[in-house]
Design goal:
Elements (H helix, E strand, L loop, with lengths): L1 E6 L2 E8 L2 E6 L2 H4 L8 E3 L7 H9 L16
Antiparallel strand pairs: 1-2, 1-4, 2-3
Length: 74
């Protein structure tokens, strides 16, 4: 799992491999204009069940959006 999460108004990089998680704030000088203002998660793996992931993520949401973001399939 990799991603960018905005926590307390600042972007943080997330990387997780098995049971090891790393969450690091992006320094202001390194932010630039790279789309770090949006939360993004990238799931890396085989045979991932989209609906199962959506349910797990929905349990984490504290604010409901009018329409869920699309998930790109490969």
């Amino acid at each position: 799992l990799q991603g960018v999460l905005n926590l307390e108004g600042a972007p943080h990089l997330l990387q997780a491999v098995y049971q090891t998680w790393d969450l690091e704030a992006v320094p202001a000088a390194a932010r630039g204009d790279e789309g770090l203002d949006r939360d993004r998660l990238i799931f890396i793996g085989r045979n991932l069940e989209e609906q199962g992931l959506r349910r797990l993520l929905a349990d984490c949401v504290t604010e409901v959006q009018s329409s869920p973001p699309s998930i790109a399939s490969r």
